[in-house]
Amino acid sequence: MSAAIHEQGELQTLLSRSGSHLKEFGFVTLWKPYDRSTRTPAYAYTVGLAKRFRRPELLLFGQTHEASLVTVRTLVARYVRRGVAPPMDEPIRNVLGGIALMVKPVRLERAARYMRLAVEYCQSVPVPCAVQQVVMPDFAGRYPWDAEYDTSFDRYQLRLFDS
């Protein structure tokens, strides 16, 4: 299940809307569309991976609602449900067509404003909350840390990850 976040909802609202899905599958994916007033790109994040699987919550920017769901479901099926976190700093292929994604750690204080409900959920259960950002390359296949990266992609993908 996924929910589009149009306003900052409360944790109890999330649990009442998605609680059965959270119990059955162990996580939900929340998606927020582009915000013109703050120029924040569309983003998605998970709630529940830390509790159910003892793995970092995932955060990704610049994807459509559908692409975000595909990305999260694929990473959870391929890695998290098998007891491991997605590999960091290694290309992950065959998630979204020919695009190789990368996963980077993010300090919680940098990600918290984008994934408030995940943080609140971790605090309520309580479990430690870690975050990994799923990073997309530019059209030439370069990542934000590469010298030739097209920085115009920064408007779609915030650089919260640790270098």
State the major sheet.
Answer: 7 strands, mixed
Q: How many domains, as an integer?
A: 1
Average pLDDT over all residues: 90
* β-strand number: 7
Order of helices and strands: EHEEHEHEEHHE
What Rg do the Cα atoms give? 15 Å
Please work out how many helical segments DSSP would assign. 5
Tell me, what's the shape? globular
- Unreliable stretches (pLDDT < 50, length at least 5) are 4-8
Strand content: 15-25%
Summarize the amount of helix as a percent range: 25-40%
Structural class computed from helices and strand pairing: alpha/beta
Strand order of the largest sheet: 1-2-3-4-7-6-5
Distance between the termini: 32 Å
Structure description:
With 163 residues, this protein is of the alpha/beta class. It has one domain. The protein contains 5 helices and 7 strands, in the order βαββαβαββααβ. It has a 7-stranded mixed sheet with strand order 1-2-3-4-7-6-5. Strand 5 and strand 6 (99-106) form a beta hairpin. The relative contact order is 0.16.
List the helices and strands and how they pair.
Elements: E1 2-4, H1 11-25, E2 28-32, E3 43-47, H2 49-52, E4 57-61, H3 65-78, E5 92-96, E6 99-106, H4 108-111, H5 116-124, E7 131-135
Parallel strand pairs: 1-2, 4-7
Antiparallel strand pairs: 2-3, 3-4, 5-6, 6-7
